[in-house]
Every structure is written in structure tokens, then in C-alpha cells.
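Page 47, continued from p. 46.
Same chain as before, 365 aa.
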Amino acid sequence: MPGSPHAKLEVLTDLIYGALFGETSWQAFLDALAATMPDAKSTLFFHDAVARAGGLSLSSGLENTETEAYNRYYAAINPWMPRAATRPIGLGVVADQMLPREQLLKTEFYNDYIRWIGCESSVGVTIMRERGRSFNLSTLTSSADPDFNRSNAELLSELAPHLRRAFDFIRREHRDPNNENGLALFDAIGVGIVYIGEDQNIRSINSAAERMMAEGEVIGVTSTGRIMINDGELASRLSALLRNRLQTASPATTLIRMKNTSFKCTLVKMQSDFITEFLEGPTVAMIIERASLPLRPDLNDALLRIDQLTAAEMRIAAGIAAGLSLREVARTNDVSYETARSHLKNIYSKLGVNSQVGLVRRLMP
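Result:
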């Protein structure tokens, strides 16, 4: 990016607030930042110092294979991160301040990853740090000149307050997508829904789920508001989905027998943007259905306006309203994507809408 340091700062700051308010994208910001250094790769990424794990949330200049390799293996051996975990928040630094270059050159991380992606060094800044996890901005570059790199680290220091302000704004304005209207739709068709967050805390639960959980001792709620699961397979799958921050996973379905009936429990990891994922942690939806009875086709008084939908169409509509993608809805209902899309077209026709946004607006009071 040509221009004086002040001009670069002005352009990048404008892009931060433009991304915050939807006028541009965080990708555009990273692309512009990468242009400030030679052969650069810029990334927003998180690192867990306790678990020695991390991942690239969004990047510019990196191929998918390079990103996947870092997330899968190199994040755990990144030699810059032990010092990064204790560096002051908001202070841009060069790689040499994290690890002397002569030591870096001896590491597997440098020889097998940094050189592979065509870089030699990096500059970075920690934007926020919570519970041992840090959220960082970094630019990897082919420049090994510490003086040149230091000027770009100073640029990151100047950008850091704006990034922190933007992310704090996102946190304040963040609204739970698992809203009461989505819960009511699941109630209307007799399906239990529980949204589970990090540390297995229950973020929201509908009445149908509460009733079904009361019928047995396999699934329950602790006094501290955490989900309690006495089924080893289901508990293990939930733990895996909550640990996996960056990768999506196929829904996991388990049949649970409780007293006089059986329930089908399906776990689906909800999709989030990278900032919400860091700020709020992962969210998993537990969908509970009676395996021995069909879903009720009748609706309560608040939802009479969608009584022209079939039971299958109501399942699709409820999933969309709860924030699932059409592919996720198809998987949780054990139908093909094409079948789900056909149901969705019928729903559009019956309700007089032509988009998923229009569908949600039509269904909500």
C-alpha cells in the first residue's frame, strides 16, 4: 500500500469501521493490510495458551491448504505464541521480540511452515485476551529486516484501539440468534431445542425440551445451568463439537430411551462469524424429538397463520427460523438436500415469500 504511515493508518482505520457497519468486509481490511509489507499474508487468528491450540479465523494471501495445515498442526508448535501470551495487549511487536531469529531458524515451524508459505518473519498485535485465549492480528512477510518490520508493528499498535473498539461494539450489539421466536416454532411442532454454549452452559431452552428432559434422567440441567448428559456417546459428541472452534462437523444423532418412550437427540454446531465465535464461543443446538411418535402437526394459537404447512414443511420452516442453514435442516431431518429444497419451495409458495429472510419475517409475530 503506497503512501505515508499516516495515510496508511487512515485508510486501514476507515476499513475497520466500514467492516463494522457493513460498508465493506473484514476481508477487504486484511487485503489492504497485507499490501503494506512485501509478499505479506495478513490474518486474524486466535490462540489458546492453555490448550496450546489455535487457528486462523480469516486471512489474506494464504491458500486453503496453508490455513488448514496451520490449524491442524502448526498452531500447536508456533514458537512465537508463548511470549505472545504475555505481551501487552494493543502493543505491536516484531517476531524477533518473541523469539530471537537465530533460534527461530532452528525450529520446525520456520523450516516447514514459514518458508513453505514464502515468508521469513512477522509483525503482530494482541487485540484482546480472555481466559487464556488471545485474539490477534498478524502480518507474515518475506522481509527479515527488523527496522522495516518495526515500523509496521507500530502501525498495528495504532490500529489496535480501533479494532478493540469495533469488537467491543460487536459484543454489545450481538444478539442471540437463538431467539424466543425460534424456540416457539420448535414448541409448536413438539420438538425440544436446547442451545448449549462453551463449558456446556445452557444459553436457551424451550418448553418442549424441558418437558421431555423431565421424563427421565439421561439429560438434565445442573443447579449452575449446565447441561447434564448421562449417555456417554452423546456427551462425547457434544464435547467434541464445543471444542472444535473453526471446523464445522456433521450433525450427530443418538437414540435415547427414557421410561416409556424414546427420544432422538441431534447435535448441530451453529454457524457463527469469526468474531462472534471468539467473543461468544461455539454454540451447539441439541434437537430432541420423540422417536415413538410423529411430530404434532397442530400449531398453537400464536402460530395459526402457518397452519397450511404440512408437518414436514413445518420442520423445515422451524429449522430455518432457528438459524440453521438448509443443509443443516436437511441433515437433522434425515432428508436429502434436494428434498429439503423442494419443501422450502413449497413453503415459499404457500406463504407468499421468496427468500429465507422473508420466510422468517412471515413466521415471526
